[in-house]
Amino acid sequence: MGRMSVEEPVGETGELPEYAERVLDLADAIPPGRVMTYGDVAEWLGEGGPRQVGRVMSLYGGTAPWWRVVRADGTLLPGHELRALGHYREEGTPLRESGPAAEGHLPRLDMRRARWDGREVSGRREVPGG
């Protein structure tokens, strides 16, 4: 599996739940420098919702590119802002710098430019894990 730490819950068989595998496969397919929202992932999979995707990422996403699955408003994940920001800058993810009045002066993701729709440049739909 390679995605879990010892503390993370798994099913009775020791396997990740099928929905979690699908979420993580899609997270792995998001190109560097691009993001999908929790709701985008759920919609793309045709199952669950933003909270279910967030739960999967929280429980099982430690080795997946968790910083590429984000809040719809582009704010950085609370408690992980600096780690995420490092990944975004390394990957060239479009950011919107915050003004001096913004709390913490942390940038937000530029969702208009960074959001990925699950399609390759050619327009062919990506098939995570396939």
Give the topology:
Elements: H1 18-29, E1 36-37, H2 38-45, H3 50-60, E2 69-70, H4 81-91, E3 95-96, E4 108-109, H5 111-114
Parallel strand pairs: 1-2
Antiparallel strand pairs: 3-4
Helix pairs in contact: 1-3, 2-3
Question: Explain this structure to me?
Answer:
- This protein is mainly alpha-helical and 130 residues long.
- Helix content is 35%, strand content 6%.
- The N terminus is likely disordered.
The count of DSSP E runs of length 2 or more, i.e. the number of strands, is: 4
* N-to-C series of helices and strands: HEHHEHEEH
Per DSSP, the total helix count is 5
pLDDT averaged over residues = 83
In brief, what are we looking at here?
The chain has 5 helices and 4 strands. The chain has helices spanning 18-29, 38-45, 50-60, 81-91, 111-114, and strands spanning 36-37, 69-70, 95-96, 108-109.
Please give a handful of descriptors for the protein shown.
130 residues; disordered N terminus; two-stranded antiparallel sheet; 5 helices; single chain; mainly alpha; two-stranded parallel sheet
